[in-house]
Each structure stands twice: as structure tokens, then as C-alpha cells.
Amino acid sequence: MHSDSEEEGQGSTSNANGPSPKKKRKINGVVVVNGANGRALSNGTSNDIKLHRTQLPIWTGKAALVSAVKNNDTVVVLGETGSGKTTQLPQFLHEAGLTRDGIIAVTQPRRVAAISLAARVALEQGTPLGQLVGYNVRFDEHTTRNTRIKFCTDGMLVRELLIDSDLDRYSVVVVDEAHERTLRTDMLLGSLKRIQRERKTGEKRDRDGKKMKPLKVVVMSATLDAERFSAFFNRCPVLYISGRQHPVQICHSKTPVEDFQDAALRTFLQLHLDHPPGDVLVFLPGQDDIESLAKSIRAYIPQVPPSQQKVLVLPLYGALPPEQQKKIFDPPPAGTRKVVLATNIAETSITIPGIRYVIDTGLCKERSYHTRHGGSGLDELLVKPISKSSAQQRSGRAGREAPGTCFRLYTEQSYNQLTNAPTPEIQRCDLNSAILDLKCLGEDPMEFAYMDRPLDDSIRGSLITLYALQALDSQGRLTRLGRRLASFPLEPALSLVVLSSQSRACTAEILDIVSLLTCTAKLFIDNADTREAAADARKKFQHRDGDHLTLLNIFRSFEDVLSSNLSAASSQANGGPAHTGSRRAAREWCKAHFLNEKALNEATTIRTQLRGNCEREKIDWKVSCGDDAEPVLRCLLDGLFRKSAIKAPDGTYRQIGMQQVLKIHPSSSLVDRKPPTIIFDELLITSAVYARGVSAVHSSWLIDTPLLNSNARGNTTAPYTNGHT
Ligand code: CDP
Ligand code: MG
């Protein structure tokens, strides 16, 4: 299937607006770092580690980098994936004394990357993780007072800004993977610019009234957008790290691919039969695709001739537990070909050793938001074609250690039609929590220093939503409630659900439900073959009022299994450890009900953190309403009232305030019952607009919602007539 090919090595990733990594360059009068060859990593002794470090391309540029950071407020560092930026630069700065009066924060768009990088750097420093080197991601923190290098998600640092708007504790903030332009990265870039100015001019003083020390910012990127970052930070210097990239042969598919799963499977099997040893990296859009391809590869492998190498299939995606992620860094056993199935996490943020072949489906999942629905809940992960710059990054992964090959499961013509770079997330996602955060930071969302400004309509849409949630008053000022909403690591609507559970005396139930709604792993494991069996097995959890209370039933049954087996096992004198026994029982129970144990475990962790948040807000999270559904549903409505709908005579629904026509998704337990008034978690657009995660509410309860209760704060219905005004 792949016949046409081209050489795309060093050359094509360094195009007109970028440097040729082989040459020395001077840009804005700054040194270019020239590197040695990066080598595959060993996890071994401290000597091995030292050797590994000194062989990374960034190593020879150590002095230049340190002095550039010392002599400038902001520095942009550009270097190929794997050159050592993320793991080495923070150590260089630490070793050069830049942590003497402050911490170095290194932000990552993804939690998986933050954790695994912290672990790596701790290992390189020879210290236990969480001491000198720690991490902080949502729902999981490993730091101490002595932590000097802290890896965190960009979202966590934005949260810290809410508590400490000057980032007092930090001497350096490294914004890594800046090219990804996540929403939080963009918010950070704008905020960091403000903080630098305030610290410098002395506009703000520290707690003792002294002028604050300057905040150093390092922006790191793997693609060629350095000039834009430099322009944003008052034309700050750019440092290029020249890595070594081997040529990569690119093979495009000759005809358009209809089923990328099937094409990926065939391409892999063919490659495995015809090509010399070397590990394979397959880029797929999401976790489900990864799991299903892993299954097919495992099913087909026994059929290849026994003379062939063995195959080790390893998935890599955001929700994967850290112990499993670690496996991708280990060399495979002798005579085995490793095949890593990854999302775009492996594009730039995690470098996998040993890769010689890349199979690129050309797809990724992207969060998109539909402004025309006025923030109606249409914020969805959609499978989309990648950009040219992503395609180049992906193919580049095959040439890190030796010449490689990339199989693109799309035609050359499709490649040529790809956009150059991805659209920044801030221009395509729901801004509610971002705008609330900006308000808490005292910023004016209309005037904020955006690197790329979102549509005014999206900003206004979010302001209206926040006003409806009573987070803002009619003058657009932050309310006390607004500040409380922002203190939860949840979207504002769900924070409101949690807050209102206090007065409705059902916080225990609400935290269970909200934790399950928030977790990233999918709870229901369904595919076409098992759908019926799954529905049968799960029938007993079904609550007549809908999907939210069904979730509650599931969570509670899961915990019953855990705790009853715990007591059974501990009363058995010669049984194995109680914990293992109950874990095993829980696993079997999940399997029998087609539920994802990972999701339930994740929800348990989230709930622990939310309980902590509640304690800080003086909310007693133990308060329960027992089996009474009404308070729970009313709380959900308090927050989700913008996602409520009323049945029309034809059996479809009209979303309140938006007149959006929608139907109940077939996966909902209410699809047949069709109650007169519903609330829902999200909308899904396929052939029609479907509401998913649906519960029945009383029409009379709507009167109490801010949306219809115009007495509460003047006439609030006006802004809803057409989504935004
Ligand atoms: O940030 P950049 O892409 O420039 O490179 P890096 O993440 O600092 O990685 C440098 C080297 O460390 C690569 O060869 C990685 O394979 C290795 N590494 C690792 O073995 N384990 C990790 N958890 C992270 C990096
Ligand atoms: Mg990196």
C-alpha cells in the first residue's frame, strides 16, 4: 500500500523559518548550542546516568544556557525532541544556583509527562522522588518543603497563581512544550508577563514590603515557532539546541485509508515481516483506539511464522498508571520487537528509546467548542486530522537513533492539505473556568495579554455563563461565590453543584457522582459484541431518575465489594493479605459488570482530593441524604441548569434558554421513559444532537434556578435569548 516515498530527514523539519540544526547560528545575538549525539537511555548505575546526561545534545550548551538565563528575564529554548531540554535544563539551573532563593517550576501540558519526567530527573539527581525533585498534578502531589525542581501541569501552576498571584516561591518558571499552546499554557504566558513586569517595577512588594526578585521565565518548544514566543516576550533571546536527527524515509499511502485501525494493523504486520529489527511507534487518536489495536495485534501475532521476532505491545496514553508507563523506557527482551501504541503524547513530550519505525494515522483527539451553541455544553473531544508540524514531529520520532522509516496512513495529497500548525486551544475550547480564573487573578478577560486572542464571542459567552452561575455580579465583578467556585479543581458548574450540596445536605452523594463525572478514564467498557450483555449485567444499578443516580449506585456497589471482601479476608486467618483479596474481588466484579476498574479507582482518588477541598471550604463531606434522590437532583440542577431541556410534543427536547433541539442518547437509561424535564452532562453531535448523562428533574424545580429566577439578580433571562449578546 505504501509505494511513493520521499526523504524527510533533517531537512524538512527545519524549513524556511527555522534553523538548520546542523549549522551554528546566531539569532538576536545569542549563542547557538551545538550538541553531541543523544543516546538511548539506560536506567542503570549513576555512572550510566552521568554518561547518558553528558551525551545528550544539550550538554555542550550548558554554560551558554545558564548564562543566558542569568542575564535575561526570559529566554526561549528551541530544540528537537529528545535533545535533553526538559530533563537537563532544570538540573543545569539548579546546579548553577538558581534555586537558592526560589523553586524552579517546569510545566507540562500532560500529567503523565509531568510525573514520568519528575521521576527521571529525581533518578538523575540520585534523590527519591518527591524530595529535591517533585511533582504536582491535579489530584496528586509529591513535594516537600525542600523541593527545588517541581514538575507540574500547566493547569496546576495556574491554580497556584490563584493562591499566590506573584508566584513568590518561584525563581524560575519553565514553560515546557509551549508549542502545544494549551489553554493553561496560554494563560500562564500572559500571567507570567504581568508578574515579570510587576516584580521588576516594584509595583508589587513582597510580604515584608521589599522589592521582589525578578522572575525568570524559560519557554521551551520543540517546533519552529520560537520567534512568536520571543516577540511576545519583548523580543527575548532564542537559543537553539542542535540535535542529531537521522534521515527518515516517508511512505505515504497511495490511496485514502478508510479504516485507520485496519490500516495500522496491516502496516504493522507487514513491517514486522519484511523489515529488520527496530521498535515501532504507532500514533493513534485515543485510548480506545489504542486498546483495540493492541488487542488485534496480540490476536494476530501467534499467526506469524515462529522464526520471526516476538512482539511486545505497549500502550501509552494520558490515563495510563505510572507503573505501566515506565515499561516503555525499558529495552525489550532479546529477540523481541517493541511496538508502542501512543496518543500524541509521544509526539514531543515523551521520548521513547529504540524507535526505528513510525506508523502515523494522521489523527488526534482535539477538544473543540462550538460557540454557535453559546456554551451549551458542546465541548467535545473530536477526532481530527493533525497539522503538518505534528506530522513532521511524528515522523521525526523514527530517526532519533538511526535512519528510520515513517508510514503515513494518508496520501501525500492529504498531507499537503493539512494546516501548518494546530489552532491554539484557547481559540477552540470552553473558556468558563479559564475566564473565572482570570477574574480571580484580577485580570480583565477582555484585556488580558493573550498570545492569540480567543473570539470575543467565546469570552462573552463565558462571562454570561459565569454571571448565570452567580460567580460574577451584573457589573462583571467577581463575587464571593465566584472565588469559592474557583477554589475547586472542577469546571465552575460542577463546583457549584458541590457547593450547593452543603445546603441540600447531600455532599457525600454529590462527591461520589462528581468524582465519576470528572475522571478521565471511561467507566463503561462497551463494544458492539458486548453491549447487550453489559446492559443486562448493569441493569441492577439503574435508577429510575436517570444516569447520575445510576453512577452513584455503581460507585457504592463497587465500594461494598471492596469493603465486604476486606472484612471477609481479614477474618480469614490463613487468607492472603486482605488488601489483595478485596482488590481481586473488585477486579472480578468490574469485569462481570463491564466496568473499568481504572475509572473507579481514579474517581476514588479524585474524591479524596475533593473532600480536602470541601474541608477547606468548611463543608462537611460526610453529610448524606441516604436514598432520597431529590436533594441530589436539585443540586445537579443548581449547577447544570444551562444543560436542562424540556420535552416538546414530538418527543424531542428543547434546551432551556438556547432552543437547541436535542434527543436523549440511546446509552441513557431514560431513552425510553422520556421524562418531561431533563438535565444532562454533555451534548454529542452525530446525526442529531444527543444529550448524554441524563437525569429527570421536576419542572417546578426550574423556578429555583438562577436561569429562570429573575428576582434573584434582576432580569437574567435576557442574555440567554441568543446565547450571547
Ligand atoms: O525535552 P526533550 O525532548 O528535549 O528531551 P528530554 O525529555 O529531556 O529527554 C532526554 C533523554 O532522556 C531522552 O533520550 C529520553 O529518552 C530520556 N528520558 C528517559 O529515559 N526517561 C524519561 N522519563 C524521560 C527522558
Ligand atoms: Mg521535553
From TrEMBL:
UniProt keyword terms in alphabetical order: ATP-binding, Helicase, Hydrolase, Nucleotide-binding
EC number of this enzyme: 3.6.4.13
GO terms for biological process, alphabetical: positive regulation of transcription by RNA polymerase I
Domain of life: Eukaryota
Keyword Nucleotide-binding carried by entry: yes
Domain Helicase C-terminal: 264-442
Domain Helicase ATP-binding: from-to ranges: 66-242
Residues covered by region (Disordered): 1-27
GO MF entries: ATP binding; double-stranded RNA binding; hydrolase activity; RNA helicase activity
Annotated InterPro entries: AAA+_ATPase, DEAD-box_helicase_OB_fold, DEAD/DEAH_box_helicase_dom, DNA/RNA_helicase_DEAH_CS, HA2_WH, Helicase-assoc_dom, Helicase_ATP-bd, Helicase_C-like
Catalysed transformations (reactions): ATP + H2O = ADP + phosphate + H(+)
A GO CC term attached to the entry: ribonucleoprotein complex
Protein name: RNA helicase
